[in-house]
Each structure stands twice: as C-alpha cells, then as structure tokens.
Amino acid sequence: MGSLLPIGFAAPWVLAALAALPVLWWLLRTTPPQPAHVKFPPLRLLLSLRNKEETPQHTPWWLILLRLMLAAVLIIAMAGPVWKPLDIAQPKTGPLWLIVDNGWDASADWERQIRMAELMVDGAAQNNRTVMLVTTADGPAQPMRLSSAQEVADQLRALTPQGWQAARSELIPALQKQAEQNPPGAILWFSSPLEEPSTTSFAKGLASIARASDVSENSFLIYRSETPVYALKQLQNTAGAMTTTVLRHPAPLAETLTVRAYDRKQRAIAEQAVELGAGQNSAEIALELPSELRNDITKLAILGKSSAGSTVLVDEKWRRRKVGLFAGGFADRSQPLLSPLYYLERALSPFADLPPAKSTDIVAAISDYFDKGISVLILAEVGTLPKNTEADIANWVSKGGTLIRFAGPQLPEKQDSLIPVALRLGDRKLGGSLSWKEPQALKSFSENSPFRAIALPKDVTVNRQVLAEPTADLPDRTWASLEDGTPLVTAKKHGNGTIVLFHVTPDTKWSNLPLSGGFVDMLRAITSISSTAVYNPDEEAEGTASAAALPLLKMLDGYGKLTPPSANHQPILERDFATTHPGRTTPPGLYGTEDAARALNLMEDEDNLVPLDLKPLSMATILDYPSEKPLDLRGWFFSIAILLALLDTLALLWLSGKLRRNQFTHAAILLLLASSLSLTGADKVQAQDTSELFALDASLDTRLAYVMTGVPEVDEISRAGLFGLTRLLTDRTALEPEAPIGLDLQENELAFFPIIYWPIDAAMQMPSPEAMSRIGAYMRNGGTILFDTRDAYGTSSNSPNKLKLQQLLRGLDIPSLEPVPQDHVLTKTFYILDDFPGRYNQSPMWVQASATTSDGSRPVRAGDGVSPIMISGNDFAAAWAIDTQGNYLYPTIPADGNQREMAARVGINILMYTMTGNYKADQVHIPALLERIGQ
C-alpha cells in the first residue's frame, strides 16, 4: 500500500490520472456552455424585447474549478484512500514468513499483534500467496511448513501467549534450513518487548537469512511493542512482612501499581500500592501482615497487569514457619555467646517465627509450643525426656512435625525413640574416643537430602562429633558427611514427619558450623520441607510424600492464569526442582499433588527485564504496532464527488436559464441538507460495518458459538473446545462448520446459531437486563443454550460456578428440567449413548422435562422436540479442546482414552440433536437402532 503522510492508497497508481487535469481544464475552458434558448415574442413586442442574459464565450472559471475538483475527488476515491494505513509487506515472489512472538511478554500487546498478523494473512490470501507461520515460544519441534492463508488464519485465531519466555534463537537452524529449500519473499516478525536470555542473537540470525534470501527492506518488516511489561521477583517472607520487587519495561511515565495477595480460594487477603516515577524500572513493596495471614497467601499478582511474569505462586517454601526452641540451660544468659540458643535464634530469625517458651520446664514448654502451632521443634542440650513428653513429641512428629536435635554432653546413655540412627556407646560424650589430630571438613551433601541445592561450605571444620553405628540403612539416613565418611547430619521419617540429628552441638564447642553461612542454609532447608501446620494423618491424601518425579499439576499461561497442563510438558525430578529454570518443557506453575504442590515461578531472583535488541536488523523496516485501526476514506470521497456533481448540475441549469435565482438558492439549500445527511450517514455505515461483518460471518457459513465470559482463560478453553468439535464434525459427519465465534451478549445477534455454548465462571459479569431479555427470546424461538458449570457438580454440590448459574437462571423463563432419560432422542441422534461425559464424568445432563400422556408415552413436542436448555458440569469444551496440530490440550479426569472418545460422541450428538430435532424418535428408526445395540 502506498502512503503519503497519514494517508495511504490501496491503488496509488490511479493517482497518475491527476496529471490529466490540465488537459481537462483546457477542454472545459475552450468549450462554452450550451446557449440559452429564448422564445420569440409576438411581433408587436419585438421592438421592446431586450434579453439581459447573454451566453458567455468561455466557460466561467468557477465552473471549471468545480469540475476539476470533481475529477480530482473521483480519482482520489478510486485510488482507495486510507487514513493512517498499515504497512503490509506482500512478496512479489516466494512465500510469506510470519514469525509471531507468543511468550509471556507478548500478552501485554497480544490483541494488536494478532490483529496485525491477520491483516497480513488477508493480504496474502488476496494475492494467492502461501504462508509459513512460526511461533517463537513453541520451539523448533513445531511443524514449519507452507500453508494456505486460510489455514494460517485459523491457526492465528487459536494462538495464545504461553507462560514462558520465547526461545527465539533455537529456531535459527530450522529457519535456515527452510530458507535453503524455499527462500522467503517477505519476512514479518511480530515481536514482543523483551530479549531472551541467550548468547545467540535471533536478530542476527534472521538478518543473515534475509540477506541470503534477497529479501528487500520493504518486504522485511519488524513490528515492535512499546507497551510496558511488568514482573515480580525476589519474594521473601521476612520477620515482619512479605516483600517482593516490582519490575517494568519500558518506564516512560510515572504510575501507581497495586500488588494484591490471594489465598487458596482466590480471595484477596491484602494489597499494597507502589509508586513508580518516570524512568524508574523497579521498586520494592512489603505486605505487613501477621504470619498466620501471610501463610495463607498462595499468589501475588499486579492488579490489572496480569501475565506469567507479574504473577508469583507461593508454596510451602515461602511460608513462614513457627519454630520452637528449647535448650536445657537456656535460662543462663550471662554469657550469650556460649548459649546454644544464641546461634540458633540468629540463624532462624530471618525466615522463621520464634515464639518464646512459656516455661523452663520442658513438659510445660513443649505443651505450650504445640498449642501455638509450631512446625519445627529444636531441642539443644536436652538429655533424657520424660516418658509422657517423649510420647507427645513422637505423636506430634507422626502428624507432620519436624524435630531437630543436636548432640552434646546431655545426650542420654539409653537412646530414646526420637534419635534417627543408632549411636555408638561410649563415643558420644565430650572428651570421648573421638579426638582427631586435625579437624575434619565437610565432604558432601546427600542427593536425597534437602541440602542438595546448597553450595558446600568450605570453611566448616568439626573437632568432635557423635558417631553412628554402621548399620545397613545408615547411608540412606545420612544427609551430610565429613571427609572420613562419618555422618554429620542424619534423619529418618516418622509417620508424616521427620526426625533430624546434628551430630555436633548448636554452639562452637564441637565445631565452627554455627559460625558458617552454611548453618543458616541447612536450617532453612530443613524448615522449608516442614509443613506450616501439623495435620491429621488420617486426612492426608495418599502419595503426598515427595516422589522421585513431580508431575505438572497446573501451569501458568501468558496471562498469569492457572490452567490444566497439556501432554507436552515433563515432570521435574524432586532433587532437581530447586535448580530448574522455567521453559517450554517445564513451564511455570504448580508441580506435585494438590496437597503437596511445589511452585515454579517464571522470574528468578537474578532475572531482569532486558529490552529487545533490534540493532542487527538495520536492513529491515522497524514499525510500531498501530494504536488504532485504519479508516477507509473512499466513502467520504465518493460522497463529496456526488455533492460536487449535484452542484455542477445546478450550475448548468442556472447558466442555461432554466433555473431562476430564487429557485437556485432553494435547490442549493436542499442539496446541502442532503449532502450533510449523506455524510453523517457515512459514520453510521462505518459503525454498522462491524455488525454487518458479524452477520455475514455467522450466516454465510455454519459456525458454532460460545458466550464470552470476560475471563480470558475460560474464553480460550471455549474457543479451543468448539474448534476441536468443529474438526470432529468435519471428520465424522457431512457437516463442515467454519471456525467458532465468540458472542458478546450485549452486541451480537443470537438468532444465527442453533446452539450456544455458555461456560459458567464465578468471576464473570452478569448480563444486563436487555441481554437477558434477548436470551429469553432466543430460547423461546427455538434456540438452545448449553450451560456448562465445568466443576463436575453432583446432586448436592454447591460450587461457586453452580451458584452463579442459579443466579443467572433466575432472570430467565426456564421450563421444568430432568436428567436425560434413557429413551431421549439425545441418546441416539448419531451415536448410541448411555451417559454424557466431558472432561469429567460425574455430572448428569439436564434437559427440558418431557410431558407424558396418560399411557406413559412421551408425545412429540413443538419445535422438533429440541430442549431450549441443557445443563452439565462435565466441562465439555476442555474435553474437546485441541491445538492447531490436533493435540488435545487438557487430560480427562480420570485420564481415560475411552472417556475422551465418548466426550467427542456427546458433542456430535448434541449438535445433531439441535440441528435435526426429534426425527430419530420416529418409529421407522427403531429396527435399525435395535440392530445396532444387538437386541
């Protein structure tokens, strides 16, 4: 498209006709207007007749100017003027490459990015060009092939931003191979704002491909985003507050951001505003809450700036534990540096709450600690425990508590049940047989210990320790070892809890471990694996202990929403979790089980928002995403041309004497009124373009429709689900629907669709009364709405989605409902069905209750017997949802291939039922149906 200032032209070559205007001026000037005709008067008046109007020799200058303006306006209108046109690169030869960044940072500008890509694909379709779509977050394994523009348009509609950073550089080898086989004629890169953390520059590689393929500057376009991207990092739960750092890029203006904390039920617990000045890229916030409230936080997010980067998931690692400290001689504070509590308190206080002991009596102190809900109990310089106290501690540990003990002179000769390993008699007291010529250093941390992610401290030396008996299970219970192979820390599971023993004292008498930073890290690691609350083991779900591999439970999408995982992601080994970086195979989200989930967040403490470097692409044209849609001016110019033509007609009538002066004035006034109405009507036509396009899309082709709830992840599941159902119908039936349509209940007409899928979400907004009235009219006139609460509700469940549906249905005239009976037409329209599973198979399908006659038969109802309403909670859309390659996006629950197939059959039956009615209820079908079911 050619462009001139903010105006572009679809056919700029037409403007060459403006060069003929001087010739037109010469012709108009030398051609006089038609002479005026005057009737000859009677002879007796001949002498007195005087004609005051004379025909000029040349056309008046103002008429020539009027006609030149008319010609110029017509030429400009035919050239296709567009206000603020988009630069669209279309190859003269060769295919069009579309490279789309779909990492988490693309979510801020996703709508404009996809709109631009769709415009480019439309241009390729008009020129009959093939297109190759490449998404940078999906890696080199994605199919890179040339496709038709229509197929790529469908793929673009299915795209959503992913929850990880796009690894563009991984695509360079595959793109080079494609360029060698079929060089591109044009390259378009729809970029996101951030650079990937890689030493290989994608921009340099892409520039090299463009040069090798002879792609011109006008056919190599890079669209860059200037929309700010936000992120959270460095989450810490300190003694007084939970803190995190807010990042943004770019930072042109001052703004106020709000960070909100949510609990497990996604209820807001607290929020904190932070001011960012112009040019300021980061700031720290602190949520000052009681530790009990902070321990309820499961997520932090920047309000109104949702993305995977601006969302932090909080698991047990960040919850602040209560730790009870008890030492046999803790009342002696005269020499604090010799007190074991001195080192323990300073090591634990940065990440744990240390409630004071109620008494120096161990029985009262331990009982008080349990009442305060501690997660970890540390005993230092404690000898023989009272039997009842020992039993109470053992019971507390079995319910999930963590007990840490330290060696010392007070360790009893007769070992109790709260020691993880058998100790050697006679060698455990201070001054015993363990006396080395040189101190021993730390050698290793066990791979099955929580210390495996800690850097081995080089400055730790041990002078004395308690030795363990060399039993067969000692290696499995050893968490840390010295150079000579003897254990420094041992542990064992006791019920649902853990008992840990440091084979040295908590002060500096036996080692310098308490003076090392490694001591803090070791205590932090042990504390982090403890629970924030001791739970009942009878209520503990099976399999919550840390397994060798942690499967992906829920993943963060590009908008920062937790969604079910797909089959393309890998579990993370438990021992590697602390060092795993989020990416395509291990996306950010929750891993493990519902009761013991581990959070993997996108932003790590050392990460920053690095701006995308486009300097290597000097040969390309770099553009910003347009802030508004282009405006087609052809209608305006044609309206002006019509106005000028009418004025020319009036001028000719006036010059020929057929129109008097007062008549000319009246005609000019009417003409101006008509033209003003036509120009104002142009705005209305422009405003009606969207509704007319929607009507054409919905009526010219059969399409499935879903209600847009305003919740992005729910709407995306609906779109992907109906897209999958469309493919199923095309493959298995004679019906070939086009891509599904999302409905705005406030704006769009519903009558085009035989059935509308309406997912229910507790967070969605209630429709207006006007919209509810239109919905009621749609159902009364033969339309069907399938309501899906997506929560697998049973007969007695009152989930938030079910309550939202009840609130919604109060505004509609709903008939009596019943679960689908066994003889209902819905069970046999295409497949023979017994139940109606989706992603779940726990909820019944409700339809309009059939009236029964006196003999118990079901008569045929009006409207072909199609129920105006269906209700389920089995999450049909998630069961049908596929990506552009045909892979199912969400697993069925339970994971069962047969359930997936039955869900597909349910979708086909529902569509056939709503489109064909109750024809299968006719008796003529009964023999064939009986034969199919083997009766």
From TrEMBL:
The chain crosses the membrane at residues 6-28, 61-83, 636-655. It comes from the Bacteria. Keywords: Membrane, Transmembrane, Transmembrane helix. Pfam families: BatA (PF07584), DUF4159 (PF13709). Residues 703-915 form the DUF4159 domain. Residues 7-81 form the Aerotolerance regulator N-terminal domain. This is N-terminal double-transmembrane domain-containing protein. It comes from Pseudovibrio denitrificans. The lineage of its organism: Bacteria, Pseudomonadati, Pseudomonadota, Alphaproteobacteria, Hyphomicrobiales.
